[in-house]
Specification:
Helix content: 25-40%
Structural class: alpha/beta
Largest sheet: 8 strands, mixed
Radius of gyration: 21 Å
Order of helices and strands: HEHEEHHEHEHEEHEEEEEEEEHEEEH
Strand content: 25-35%
Shape: globular
């Protein structure tokens, strides 16, 4: 297809910045780049009709980590890195609430909880000791020394079975990740950012001080600075970056009249997670039942994981209840040997912001601002 002179001098004109990936990190990056440099021409290119990695396919949690997950992070990553990561997540959640009206994105600070099963009960004393240690360490990151507390009285209130303890965190909640992406998209477009959907970048190279992007649609883009925000799929353009794809599978039940759930819930170091969507249950996770098989960019759900989720649903959340599964889907997260995002300049004027380790909702605003600062300075 030939391009007209009008298209060449408007839509396809050389840009100051091109961002590859229109998920949460790409959108927040565009927001901060444009906010800091209003005169810069900025475009986002995405191969999907809408973002289809993890940004609109997650569970809609506004969280920064459960007690057992954070304790594991302290053990594996050390205190400094874990606190840096928690601080980024916590600040990111505050930033979302500052930029957007909560009603616009269905944000509700409903409280987060972690379930401790009867089969894996360390006892109240051990739990209290773990919570006290984590709370003390988190004080510098989340500005309170009492993030987590036992709320065993709510076990029956929520209708759980086979649960020995419930740990509460009042600073967590949920939101509508689709509405958040949509609101961000509309915001950056109002700032003058051009968005190209259905265009896949095949490769890029530097020519005479400019970066030329070649697409599978045989359209070329030219830019002064390039930012790659394709998270789990970044290895296609950045083969040297350590990124392990991780499929997160989800199901949603039919509506129930007497559903007692309200909040976001974690189980088994965050490998299982569920929440209510009105009077329906959204449940995701269980990839720890098939780690190798779930290290994939294949978006299809599998019987293995879906059956594990259904088993969990009937054992802990809705035993004896009648319901149907109305929706199933998966999203692809970007993981690594550690949970810290990769935000850096790879070569002159070429940057990346990838590997959100399943916490992109919370991390994206801070990561976006961080990479915008790098590209501006």
């Amino acid at each position: 297809m030939q391009i007209s002179i009008w298209e060449k001098e408007s839509f396809y004109a050389p840009k100051d910045v091109i961002i590859v990936g229109s998920g949460l990190v790409g959108l927040w990056s565009a927001y901060y780049i444009k906010k800091q440099n209003p005169k810069w021409s900025v475009a986002i290119v995405d191969r999907g009709i809408i973002p289809t990695g993890a940004s609109t396919r997650n569970a809609g949690f506004a969280c920064f980590g459960s007690v057992t997950e954070l304790q594991d992070d302290f053990n594996k990553m050390g205190e400094d890195k874990t606190l840096e990561l928690v601080s980024m997540r916590y600040q990111g959640l505050q930033r979302i609430r500052k930029v957007f009206d909560e009603k616009l994105i269905d944000f509700e600070l409903c409280g987060g909880y972690e379930l401790i099963s009867s089969n894996n009960d360390p006892g109240v004393e051990a739990l209290e000791e773990m919570m006290a240690g984590v709370n003390k360490k988190l004080k510098s990151a989340v500005k309170t020394g009492s993030t987590f507390k036992l709320s065993d009285s709510k076990i029956s209130q929520f209708g759980f079975h086979n649960v020995a303890h419930l740990i509460e965190n009042k600073m967590e909640g949920y939101l509508h990740s689709g509405k958040l992406c949509q609101a961000l998209l509309q915001l950056v477009q109002s700032m003058g950012v051009t968005v190209f959907n259905g265009v896949e970048i095949a490769r890029y190279e530097k020519i005479l001080g400019k970066i030329v992007l070649y697409t599978k649609q045989e359209i070329r883009f030219t830019t002064g600075k390039l930012l790659i925000c394709t998270n789990a799929f970044a290895k296609e353009l950045l083969p040297s970056i350590e990124i392990i794809p991780a499929r997160g599978q989800v199901l949603v039940t039919s509506a129930m009249q007497d559903l007692k759930l309200n909040g976001t819930f974690h189980f088994d170091e965050g490998f299982y997670y569920f929440r209510n969507i009105g009077n329906r249950v959204l449940l995701g996770g269980a990839r720890n039942k098939a780690f190798e098989a779930e290290r994939t960019t294949d978006m299809n759900t599998t019987d293995t994981i879906q059956k594990e989720l259904e088993k969990f649903l009937s054992k802990y959340i809705l035993p004896g209840k009648e319901y149907a599964i109305t929706d199933r889907w998966s999203g692809i997260m970007g993981m690594g040997t550690e949970k810290m995002p990769v935000v850096k300049e790879l070569a002159a004027d070429i940057y990346c912001a990838v590997r959100m380790s399943g916490m992109g909702v919370a991390l994206a605003p801070i990561v976006g601002e961080k990479v915008a600062n790098m590209m501006t300075n």
